[in-house]
Amino acid sequence: MSKISVAIVGLGRAGWGLHLQPMLKHGGFDIVVVADPLEERRREAEALTGCRSFTTINELLQNSPATLVVVATPSATHYQDALRVLKSGRHCLLEKPIAMNARDADELVALAQQLNLRLFVNHAHLHRKEFHHLKGVIESGILGPIFHIRTFWGNYARRWDWQTLKKNGGGQLNNTCPHALSMVLPLLDSPVTNVYADLQHIKDAGDAEDHVHLMLKTAHGVTADVVVSSAMALGGPRWLICGKYGTLSSDGKMSRVRYYDPAKAPEMSLLDEAAPGRQYSKEQLPWEEREIEVASAAVSSFHENVFDVLTADATQVVTPESAAEVVRVSGLAQKAAQN
Question: What's the CATH number for 4-122+304-315?
């Protein structure tokens, strides 16, 4: 198996845990160079991989033979760092979010296309069985046309690191919310056109929001209610998907669905007169209920897909366009919250 030469910029939580270690485990990646301002992190990477190390991304790009550069720097510098990588002629694997605004995101997408380079963005939740389970239930048609999706990503945990500061691109809207949006947006029937947003700073040490509540509406009128919060000690189900003929409720491991076949339902005849017996209309619908385990899906992991795209021209699961769409919707949310 031929190996892909890799450079990693940033050896923090993401660079080390989400990229360096999975790439070593995969075996198809050769980590030849890293960059990080902290000497102890550079030495640790050198000892583990035998790579060279530098302090800055510019030094790395000037002295690196790598064909793929992983950018795992703070969110606020993603656009600038990815721009440097692409202009140097390398493929880029970028941590989310792809950029801080839609203009910069679109520029990166266009530049990668222009230079015939691959731009990967770590929306790894699109590889997870949870997403493919929900997508499969919707596509099966048992719920009928979908009119509303609700997702709750909540816990309670206080933070005091760099991601709690706005100046670093911190906050839930840029940190955890992109994961939720990366899953919700492909489940909707059309692009989001309207956004309501409530962004609150409740308890973290910095000044960025730790509670996000979004209400999205698509061009076809489907709505999505998205809550991503580290300030909620209790909450509801992870997913609620509502269709014309039924509903799915899921904790991400097991789903309960309640639905009926419209062909087996009694016909309705509209009554525009006094209700008989002063009562609401009543009927017995042929409800069916079942539980469905969120089983493993026949999909590769994020890094397996990166390898297959670069070595075998496989289909790229997380497209840069989908990552840019997450940033566009996040920008609508920021604007809505300000208004």
Answer: 3.40.50.720
